[in-house]
Amino acid sequence: MKLHIIFLIAALLCLLHEPFALADNFEENDFAEFEDFDEDEFIVGNAASDQQSAGGVDSAASLGKSNPNANAAQDDSNDFAEIDDNDEDEAVVEDEENEFEHFQDEEEFEGFPGTMNEQEEVKLADTKKSEPKLTMAKVPMHFRTHWDSYCLEMLMLAGLLAYFANYLFGNKKNSSIANLWLTTHKTLLEDNFVLVGDDGKKETETSTLSFIKESESIYTLWCSGRTCCEGMLVELKMIKRQDLVSLIAGIMKPVQDQLHIKVEMSPDSMDNFVFCIASKKQATKMFKEMNDLSKFCTLVNKTEEKYNIPGYSLLSEIAEASSSLLDSRLIAALNKYSHLIEYIHVSDQYSGPVQQEDPNTLKQPEVKRILHCGFNMPAKIDMEEMKPLLVLVFYLMERIKRFRLSKEGKSKSDKNRARVEEEFMKNTHAARAEAAAQRREEKRKAEKEKVLANDDPEKQRRWEEKERKRLEKKRPKMKQLSIKAL
């Protein structure tokens, strides 16, 4: 009997121990509900725990009085059973058909096309229409496969190459023309001048004769050492062959290579007169642009009837000077070389082109006695054809040296120069009066400083008295009228 009682007590203790051990396991692992279990293991574990909890409840009910902790254990087992039921519910896998049901919920996605009404759909379509359309730029393919994409660049490169090639060719061409002219006329120049090709920088005895290159198209040569002249400047003004743009412009407005020879006459080797014979177009241009021709000469276009020189106009100050210079030799040269001779200008009042009138200018421009000839070069660049033109220049130099005006011619020449001087004085009268007043004021200021620097009060008093009298003389006198009282 005692053995049976001891066996029953031991069995009850074992049953009571299992719920508390299970509870301890749940308390120790708070995150057991988040662990991943296989569905079969989860169901088997719940069934075993249900059986054990059921047996434990019956035995506990029978022995509740003997074990005071039995009620607490029963409550704990009921709680764990509820937890196991909830875990079983959560472990149920949802059907695949219901997995995307939330996409059909209208409250989940507001403004989605499937949930919008007709008005909202119309508004959305309007906004889409008003949105700007983006267009992608067409990027050209690589130049290796599409050379036509670089046509502009290739044209520019070809233009630059043509320009530089023309520059080299044109520069060489102008230089060869200058050297050819010098070679052809070298003997004639050396026979008439002691010094040919003087540039003022190097010794001409040891240097080779050559032009001075002013630019790619202008070459100059200075000659001196001859009677009746101070010197002669030879200037070759050629076409700008090195400039491709100038060549293209020359197609529309043809130009020629030109030779300009300017001789500075000695003061005692030329009388006072102004004379010019030029082609009609050039004569009109020079009459407007040259200062001495516009002031002293009149334009005569009837040279063919009087001098038998067709195609030329005469600008003359004194008729006897024109008749003397236009002798048979010069007229023959003008008729024979009319395509080469552009103008012949002789003047003792040469001052260059007309300058803009400046009222502050107090002196007339400096004048020179010159013989200025302009010739066109032949198209075929035949320098032998130009030799007679240089000979004509030397002939005119000797002709001007021998010519002398009559008394009437000299009187007329002097009157013309006095008239020009008077016109200049009238135009600059205001400027000269202002300059004279300024000089007087500076003189008085210097005198005042000198007197004040002196310590003698008597001299200062006399100077002040003198200055007061001078100012009183300058004041306008006013007449005093007396009115009698009525």
TrEMBL record:
Annotated membrane topology: Single-pass type I membrane protein
Entry annotated with the keyword Membrane: yes
Compositional bias (Acidic residues): 76-110
Record key words, sorted: Membrane, Signal, Transmembrane, Transmembrane helix
Domain of life: Eukaryota
Basic and acidic residues bias (residue ranges): 120-129, 437-470
Chain segments carrying region Disordered: 50-129, 426-486
Pfam family, one: CCDC47
Subcellular location: Rough endoplasmic reticulum membrane
Membrane-spanning segments: none
Listed InterPro entries: CCDC47
Comp. bias regions, Polar residues: 64-75
Signal peptide: 1-23
Family, as annotated: Belongs to the CCDC47 family.
Database matches in PANTHER family: ADIPOCYTE-SPECIFIC PROTEIN 4-RELATED, PAT COMPLEX SUBUNIT CCDC47
Name of this chain's protein: PAT complex subunit CCDC47
Source species of the chain: Aedes albopictus
